[in-house]
Amino acid sequence: MDDEIVERRSNMQRTAVLDIGTNAIKFLIAEKAENGNWIPVLDTSQVTRLGQGMHSTSRISPSAMERSIAAIQRFLRMAEAQHVDQILAVGTMALRTAINATEFVQRVHQEIGLKIDIIDGEEEARLSWLAVMAGLPGLQGRWLIFDVGGGSTEFIFGHDRQLTSKVSLNIGVVRLTEQILTSDPVTPDEFDLAAQSIKTAFQPIQMDEPIDALIGVGATMTTFGAMHRKLQHYQADLIHGFQLSRTVVMELVSSLRAKTIAERKQMPGLPADRADMILAGGMIVAAIMEQTGSQTVIISDRGVRHGLLIDRFR
User: Fold this and answer.
1) Count of domains forming the chain
2) Each residue's pLDDT tens digit, 109-144
3) What pLDDT, in 10s, does the model give residues 152-182?
4) Are 38 and 31 within 8 A, CB to CB?
5) Are residues 64 and 150 in the same domain?
6) Where in the sequence is the domain holding 280, given as residue range(s)?
7) What's the whole-model pTM score?
8) What CA–CA distance (Å, rounded) separates 274 from 116?
């Protein structure tokens, strides 16, 4: 799909968005229809591990910088092939916190000509909310959207179609994996320590009232959906809006916990480049379901990149 040239629909604006995250770069090209809706042309991602090792150095490593710049160059070539009219790029947790983030941003601008806008955690959460509201128009009652990322997890609370509060916590799959879940397979002590770290990180989240719907955004959730459905190739239309039970989430976490990374790579629906980080993501999801008392979670395939289209290109 990456190399397939999609013919432009007549007179439609074509826009590309890059979401440069701690673990992966997500890339979306979409066309704006006359009714204002965005129609995806291409939606893909590449794991570049921009935040690899940052927990100990607070710096983006030279190799992570090179991997990410190469991926951005590749995506921009794809944008050119797809005759994109405009491009927007944002950076999240790794670029918010790395002491040499400015060096990376300047290199991308000087070498590629692309400007990166670094957004804060609350803005990241708001954009996820916009994407979910557009992608799941039937949401009613009290709900919680969460977005598990490489460096942070966002929580967005709302009632019917209104956002009521949002918070970003500095816990994500990269730090948990690199600092705690280091054995292969993980040991019981590592698993317990990671679970406790998640629980401690979640203390600022107050659940004063029960929620009617829990919605998960991000690669952990879409991957869990693909694993449960045993998809050989990811299909967004089979994942977006799909519900996973708490039992299924716990079963997947238990299965991942018992396997080596090599064994995980053989599991249907799990991309090989996410095999090492997926357990940490699943543990965060399981902890959220426990804290909220939710028995099901709705998967949203829409995220920050879709929210940017809605917000910045009205």
Assistant:
1) 2
2) 999 999 999 999 889 999 999 999 999 988 889 999
3) 999 999 999 899 999 889 899 998 999 999 9
4) yes
5) no
6) 136-304
7) 0.92
8) 25
